Here is the input.
Amino acid sequence: MADDVFKALADPTRRLILDELAERDGQSLFEICARLATKHGLGLSRQAISQHLAVLEAADLVRTRRDGRYKFHDLNTEPLERILTRWLRPDAPEGTP
Here is the structure.
């Protein structure tokens, strides 16, 4: 699972999508596309953004829910927390690498 997360985070566009969802959760594909275009100057198609979202969803970093005809995307940080705690040692003094 960690490999999927690292692969998903390797792409700068996917990191921007996660940043946008961190700022405002529960966005539709159209909202995400608009925010990426206006804030970051990305002129990617809805299909390209949808494919990026599919990679993030496969890594469980994004959860998608359907409400009527629309799909909304929410950020899920649980996979990141699992990776972080993997390297944290509770017995290590503060500042220890």
Remarks:
- The two ends are 25 Å apart (CA to CA).
- The longest strand covers residues 62-67.
- The mean pLDDT is 89.
- The helical segments are 2-9, 12-23, 29-40, 46-58, 78-87.
